[in-house]
Amino acid sequence: MKNKCVFLDRDGVLNSDEEYYTYRSEDVFLIEGVAEALQKLQKAGYLLIVITNQAGIAQKLYTANEVKTVNRLIEELSGVTLDDLYFSPHHPEHSSRSLRRKPDSLMIEKAMAKHDIDPAQSWMIGDRLSDVQAGRKAGVRTIFIGEKAKEGDLGDYQAKDLSEAAGIILS
């Protein structure tokens, strides 16, 4: 039997995104309700996989190790062990173009192959149009988090935060 999964963008979905790039431990703050939402989704049998663009690596603002450290800190703060982390270190103006970078779906596709994930039972949650586009390309349902999208495409569902998104998935 294939696994079901919730793919999660990181900044703006799991942790507050006050700074443009979150890479220092002291800047990591979980958004209210994130820990409980992750715990409910995991208890319901969903794999939890972070799918995040990290263009600051290409811009030499921080390193891949700092991205992994932030991920571990999110796990500690939420009390949830995430099943995997995929990140694109690319930026179109600072490195080569890559199909790993959202809105392309290669990170999600790699995760689906590695973890034997059924796209029909899976979701992508993000706060940007590129998250929705990547989810759609990979064939999963999408939830747009945040205020109404200025870019036009709001995903299959909209939610104010991860807590509300988890409610949609679990209903």
User: How many structural domains?
Assistant: 1
Q: What is CATH's topology name?
A: Rossmann fold
The count of strands amounts to 6
Kindly report the spatial arrangement of strands forming the biggest sheet.
Answer: 3-2-1-4-5-6
Structural class by sheet pairing and helices: alpha/beta
User: In CATH, what is the class?
Assistant: Alpha Beta
Please state roughly what percent of the residues sit in beta strands, choosing from under 5%, 5-15%, 15-25%, 25-35%, 35-45% or over 45%: 15-25%
The topology string of helices and strands comes to EHEHEHEHEEH
CATH architecture: 3-Layer(aba) Sandwich
Please summarize the sheet with the most strands. Answer: 6 strands, parallel
How many individual helices? Answer: 5
Rg over CA atoms: 15 Å
- Stretches with pLDDT under 50, minimum 5 residues: none
End-to-end separation in angstroms reads 22 Å
Cofactor: Mg(2+); Zn(2+)
InterPro entries: HAD-like_sf, HAD-SF_hydro_IIIA, HAD_sf, Heptose_bisP_phosphatase, Histidinol-phos
Enzyme class: hydrolase
EC number: 3.1.3.-
